[in-house]
Amino acid sequence: MSDITVYSIDKEQAEDASGLMLPEQAEALGKGLPIAAFAAALDGEVIGTLAGAAENGVFYIQSLYVHRDHRRLGAGRALVEELDRFAVDMDLGLKAEYTLQNEDGRTLAPFLEALDFVEDPVHFPNYCLAPLKNLHINVGASAVQYSGITSFFETSKNLLEAASERSRLEGYPLPAGGLLSSGTNPEMSYCSVRRGRVSAYVAVEALGDGMVRIPALWSELN
């Protein structure tokens, strides 16, 4: 895998990678439309691609393909790991449709599960999920890494109600109506749960036309 390099595909590089992408994705990239794609190259030759788009705080993997002559070299893993770094930087969760298949008709579920994706048949049937893994919060000269980041949608209602009540009592930032307010978008709002309680959260309100508002951001360290 040491010879495999992974990079983001821009508009000018779309044609070079088009043979390993869905036609509609290559066309969208060529037109500069808002999708993201990554290429894995071996000795300068593109051997695999990953493409998808972000919506409501989640990046959906729409295609993942490695040329059959270059499989089991780590290209697929390298593509997903590069996407994971991109998602963390952009504060995005990851979802992949596990019914995606290669040309042999085999599902990609075993590969996705090996990369810690998990199936959630209740909330997202037919998808494997890799929630946002890390939230870095800087306090003075120190940096603390929170793990177990999940959206409000995937968090227990009881935990969010308890966090709201604690925030009210302590005077912490809180949206009007609490974390479960009807104005708060549960799929775009995230929290960290440690030792059975919410230890950090960011509440997001969707205003329409791609605009959002963050009425509350809190960490137990602040």
Task: Write a structural description.
With 222 residues, this protein is α+β, with helices and mostly antiparallel strands. 21% of the residues lie in helices and 37% in strands. It has five helices and 13 strands. A seven-stranded mixed β-sheet has the order 1-2-3-4-5-7-6. A hairpin with a 2-residue loop joins strand 3 (45-55) and strand 4 (58-66). The longest helix has 15 residues, at 75-89. The radius of gyration is 20 Å and the shape is elongated. The termini are far apart. 33% of the residues are buried. Residues 131-144 have low confidence and may be disordered.
Sequence-ordered SSE layout with sheet pairings:
Elements: E1 4-8, H1 14-17, H2 23-30, E2 36-42, E3 45-55, E4 58-66, H3 75-89, E5 93-97, H4 109-114, E6 118-119, E7 127-130, E8 135-139, E9 142-146, E10 149-151, H5 157-170, E11 190-194, E12 197-208, E13 211-219
Parallel strand pairs: 4-5
Antiparallel strand pairs: 1-2, 2-3, 3-4, 5-7, 6-7, 8-9, 10-11, 11-12, 12-13
